[in-house]
Amino acid sequence: MRLRTVAVALAAGLAAFLAVGAAVTEFTLRWIEFSLFVGIPVGLLAGLTAAAVVVAGLGTEVSHLRRRVAVTLATFGVAFLLALGVAVGAFAVRNSHALVLATAVGAITGAGAFALDYAETAVLAG
């Protein structure tokens, strides 16, 4: 396994953990007083799943669809973490707003990576 694969898997896992954990925590806040105790395990499960999908999808003998999903998740993770770091570090945006902004940037970037990989596969196929 290459270092780049491990790095993007960690980025995808951390991004999924932060995005899903924060979303579940906020969603369950109405009904559960300590909603963080629900958000952390769900975010951890999402992060581990995303990292595993990226590692499995960037292997040697995988289908185009698996590779496309792995590249999309990896791109989402890297873009999410970059956007979150810039929003909080450079512009001092509140964490709650920065998470929403980073999720949107990651989703748009991931969708773009998916579309580019899909177009490239279509051109190569013929």
From TrEMBL:
Source superkingdom: Archaea
Domain DUF8147 residue range list: 3-116
Keyword Membrane carried by entry: yes
Pfam families assigned: DUF8147
Residue intervals passing through the bilayer: 31-58, 70-92, 98-119
Protein keywords: Membrane, Transmembrane, Transmembrane helix
Protein name: DUF8147 domain-containing protein
